[in-house]
Amino acid sequence: MATSPCSSSGVSSSSSSGLGADAGLEIRTRSVEQTLVPLVSQITTLINHKDKPKRSDKTLQAIQRVGQAVNLAVGRFVTVGEAIANENHELKEEMSVACIEARRAGETIAQLTDVASLDHPESDSHITIFTDKTGVVKAARLLLSSVTKVLVLADRIVIKQIITSRNKVLATMEQLEKVSSFQEFVQIFSQFGNEMVEFAHLTGDRQNDLKDEKKKARMAASRAVLEKCTMMLLTASKTCLRHPDCESARINKDGVFHRMRLALEQVIEIVTDSRPNGESEMAPISIYSGIKEFKNKVEGLRENLYFLSKENLSTMLEVILEHTEDFTDSAYTSHEHREHILELSKQAKMELEQLVSVWMQAQNQKTKDLMEDLEVAILKTCQCMNELKREVHSAATSLAADLLKYHTDHMVLKALKITGVEGNLEAVAEYTCKLSEQKEQLVEMCRLLRHVSGTEPLEITCIHAEDTFQVTGPQIISAAETLALHPSSKIAKENLEVFCEAWESQLSDMSLLLREINDVFEGKRGEKRVYLSLPRPGKHNANLKALKPVKLDSEEQAKIAKLGLELHLLTSDVDSETEKWEDQENEIVQHGQGMSSMAYSMYLFTRGEGLLKTTQDLFHQAEIFATEGTKLASALHALSDQVRDDDKPLLLLEAEKLISMCKQLQATAKASAQGKSATFTKVDACILKTRNVMTLLCQLLPLCCKLLRKNKAGNGCLKPAPPWKEDRIRTGTNARTPERRVETFGIKSLENHVTNMTFLESK
């Protein structure tokens, strides 16, 4: 859930000084939140400093320099905000007001910190940071609120870009749907491909920037649909143009367009945080989340016997047991699992009855014996719920493993292709019935896996998989019927191939999902951040002949298996190190976890598994990984400003090493490679360089953790601000490309300015 600026973990320190941004502003992205962190942190330190008894000349001079630096930095920040306002007239009024407020607050802070020239800064005759506590807090609050407003308004521009891009895609889709000539279709689809690439990049950046992991997973699911549907739309439309009177071809094409529109709509819902007709999103409750909440309530009785009623507890258990009926009523649950689930459900009711009985007695008479009995009842109830959780997990995952193994040969799909080419309508009808049965089995599997997935993002992935099987099954059937009616049609054959590949791809993804669900259950690994990429330039050219994606053969995979294994071990090491940090929201931890998850995806690629299907996907992932590493290096530089002088050189040296390694990796990933041999060499180099970065990361995380702890234990003091860098304001601008000016004057540009507001440093 999005939080207000000062309620997020990164800025919570402000509350102790009475700071707070506008409560009506919600921050939904990491870029905005992380931009505010240094500002909140440093102003809080400035305000708290006035309570210290010793005020040497050196300290007073430092305070004055800080105030001037704040004012200067805010002035330049406001300049960028005003440029954004001029580029976007609909936001001009709001942005201008926020900029005026920020400028006024900056000037006030400069006046209140103008203390170095005064003989007695504590004297009431001069209003300063030492005499006007209310004034400085008010100015700081106004500054935070107005800067937050500017950032959130700038973020609206990013949202507007995505909506505009979606509208262009929808408009071109309408043209594609109505087109009647192949030549016209070729021209419009070329435009559509370019628009989809633009939409992919905008939504990809947004996905990675979202704070809410649930929304991030929903965005990934929607983008995955759009990725697969782009090729489906191509072949389904071509088939319809080739066979305009074929009803099954029309049904097939309409299904693709409908699914793409739904996915586009969901992206906008996530980006704008809205639902159609104002309805609230009702997330289905899983057995895992129900048991977790139930156990928390039960264990809470140790601290408070009166915080909930016995009716509430009974209702919670009833809801959980109702959901277990999804397992006991399923035709695919084994007899043994069904019996165990029913037995444990009965036992859970009995344990709760016993717990309620002791609990009621303890409310009336809190004796030592009764409290011991209550503890025993709590333990037995929780143990029973753990056994129930373990049983439904075993039932769901064993069913999934069996089904995935059984369907791994894709016999039904192969039979549909063969009988379709033969024009054997009777045989096609027979195999479509078998595919429908297979679809029902897989849909049921996804529903049961959702109950035991363990995390909300994995729950969403299960729901997405269920939807994919529900939709793709009938589409394969309509494509097979079209081929059977036109057995000599090459485009009808190609169309069936595309839908069958989507089915096979989803089955492959289910194997990965099952492994992740088991990992979460066993506590081996938390939820992964998955970075999906949609079609990139060059995937669809004007003559509609798709480039064949390059995949590694078994011999090449064997060669890089050792490197991949090393990468896997390093991701485990990095995960272990990040888990040791007390503050899981720390920027260094966040970047470290992101890099670990991306490296894990690259490891899966070396095994021919996971969501990185082609070498191009791997290279794209390596670029994002290198970018994340560069962001981590920036965080290390920020940390170096807070640590002791004798610790700083080592940290800066490691940061420079990281930047150098990431630049090398980025250069390797972007380098062109022609031919199979050159491509494999590039793959090998990317994974090797990624491994080297991960090795360095394993050394950096414990070092940073140690320095932070050491810093907390030490004494703080004021230091002057680093000089403002004039050239940062124009970074990335290009006078010859006016269409990119909005991107330049966006969140990233503002982020540079606030990040440079490091006018205080704790030693």
Under CATH, the topology of the largest domain can be stated as Four Helix Bundle (Hemerythrin (Met), subunit A)
Query: What is the H-and-E element order?
Result: HHHHHHHHHHHHHHHHHHHHHH
Quote the average pLDDT.
Answer: 79
Percent of sequence in beta strands:
under 5%
Structural class: mainly alpha
Number of helices: 22
How many strands, which pairing sense, and closed or not: the largest β-sheet? none
Tally the structural domains.
5
Helix content: over 70%
Termini Cα gap: 34 Å
Shape: globular
Low-confidence stretches: 1-24, 526-549, 715-763
What gyration radius follows from the Cα positions, in whole Å? Answer: 30 Å
Say how many strands there are. 0
Text of the CATH class of the largest domain: Mainly Alpha
CATH superfamily of the largest domain: Alpha-catenin/vinculin-like
What's the architecture of the largest domain, going by CATH?
Up-down Bundle
Pfam families: Vinculin (PF01044)
Biased composition (Low complexity): 7-18
Keywords: Cytoplasm
Subcellular location: Cytoplasm
Structural description of this entry:
- The chain is globular and about 95 Å long.
- The two termini are 34 Å apart.
- The chain has 763 residues and is mainly alpha-helical.
- The chain is built from 22 helices and no strands.
- The relative contact order is 0.09.
- The N terminus and C terminus are likely disordered.
- The chain has five domains: 107 residues, Four Helix Bundle (Hemerythrin (Met), subunit A); 109 residues, Four Helix Bundle (Hemerythrin (Met), subunit A); 113 residues, Nucleotidyltransferases  domain 2 (Four Helix Bundle (Hemerythrin (Met), subunit A), Up-down Bundle), CATH 1.20.120.330; 115 residues, Alpha-catenin/vinculin-like (Four Helix Bundle (Hemerythrin (Met), subunit A)); 159 residues, Alpha-catenin/vinculin-like (Four Helix Bundle (Hemerythrin (Met), subunit A)), CATH 1.20.120.
